[in-house]
Amino acid sequence: MNEIRLIVDSSSNETEQTNRNLKVVPLKINLAGKDFVDDNKIDLPSFLEELSQTTEAGKTACPSLQDWLDALEGAEKAIIVTMTSGLSGTYASAMQARDIYCEQNPTSKVIVVDSRSAGPELSIILERIEELLQEELRFVDLEERIAQIRTKTHLLFILQSLHNLAVSGRVSPAIVKLASLLHINVIGQASKEGTLEQLAKARGSKKAVKELVKQMKLEGYHGGRVIIDHCENKVDSERIRDLLIEEFPSAQILIRKTRGLCSFYAEQGGIMVGFES
């Protein structure tokens, strides 16, 4: 099944590699009239500076139908994994592209998966799909097996900055100012419905890291694969890694940087952790 093409959007924080049959389709972000394409050419320092200074709500745009069709071009079989439909129209646009592509290529088969998440959880799902493709499975059976995988994957996050939530009207500026003065970190998760929800608050990053690890264990983590994506916060990412290794020495932990879309949501200092229960 190695001929099956894998396609994800840039919310996955994945990059294309020559030894991997993977295509990454970029989303787009608009900040104060400036457009940023979330590809490997995005100037993240400049983007983060714009994000921290803007007083207007930023906007994100899902990949166009043509973006998806370009990624599908020439594929006889493909699996697309998108960011949550609870926050973006990306899944819907991928479904439309699939229908168009299969109509134009009647012998082709395409599965579209709503991750109900983003960032490192999407990557955990992707890795498990790659493992499935090593088994002798019929393509028609893959969708059910992928659905089973998704019941065991999770995303937790820490937000150090609430600026973006304030300018978008989701949090009052007074609360943001107070949280900043008291160094309040918000710990949350991607819900089963694919929305983001708050779990706890912690004063200071060290307490936030401990709370996140606690929440991981409450979600059933007992060792295994973990992907930590951070927005300019390698220090706390390594703290999470070290706490997990201390308790689960065999844990496999990868630390990466967020790309544009996840940086937009996580903001400076934000951390996203994907794992399996």
Automatic annotation (TrEMBL):
Q: Does the keyword Protease apply?
A: no
A Pfam family found in this protein is DegV
Q: Which NCBIfam families match?
A: DegV
Is Cytoplasm a UniProt keyword of this protein?
Answer: no
User: Which SUPFAM superfamilies does this entry report, sorted A to Z?
Assistant: DAK1/DegV-like (SSF82549)
InterPro entries (alphabetical): DegV, DegV_C, DegV_domain_contain
Q: What does this protein do?
A: May bind long-chain fatty acids, such as palmitate, and may play a role in lipid transport or fatty acid metabolism.
What this protein is called in its record is DegV family protein
Judging by the UniProt lineage, the source's domain of life is Bacteria
> GO terms for molecular function, please?
lipid binding
- Which UniProt keywords are present, listed alphabetically? Lipid-binding
